Amino acid sequence: MKWFAPSLLLAACMVTAPIWAAMPAQPSLKVTTLDGKPYDLGTQRGHWVIVNFWATWCAPCIKELPDIAHFVATHPNVTAIGIAYDDTDPADIRAFLDKHPVGYPVAQVTMDKPLKDFDQPLGLPTTWLIAPDGKVAKHFMGPVTPAALSAIIGH
């Protein structure tokens, strides 16, 4: 009987613990960018895509934005979508991007309306590198570097 109480407690925890769905290997992403244009990750097949979650208040995010922008600008087979994971007013994010231009589309996702096919970031910045076949090639937690991107993409 000594095993009964701990087993019952473990079973109760398993029933009440949240169940997280696994992120699909080939995620979809359909959002409206801050400039009002639709963005569909599915239309990017044939290219590497950097899906970068960041926020205006995140110092490491701000530091990596120019690196990602430069990488995309110098690699014709690579595109990016910035996900401002931020409850800030969209006008403030646009003003931030006027001071820190990136040259690729940016959409806002708020914490109360997360993306369907992407895991919610546990910290920022968080980046997913999507391969030309649409499958997740790599998940980065923390700043991503051009060297890390090149190591996977092969350039």
UniProtKB/TrEMBL annotation:
Origin superkingdom: Bacteria
Signal peptide as annotated in the record: 1-21
Domain Thioredoxin: 20-155
InterPro entries: AhpC/TSA, Thioredoxin-like_sf, Thioredoxin_domain, Thioredoxin_ResA/DsbE_sf
PROSITE patterns reported in the protein's UniProt record: THIOREDOXIN_2
Record Pfam families: AhpC-TSA (PF00578)
Organism of this sequence: Dyella mobilis
Record's protein name: TlpA family protein disulfide reductase
Entry keyword annotation includes Signal: yes
Main location: other
Cellular compartment(s): Cell envelope
Keywords: Cytochrome c-type biogenesis, Disulfide bond, Redox-active center, Signal
Disulfide bond recorded as keyword: yes
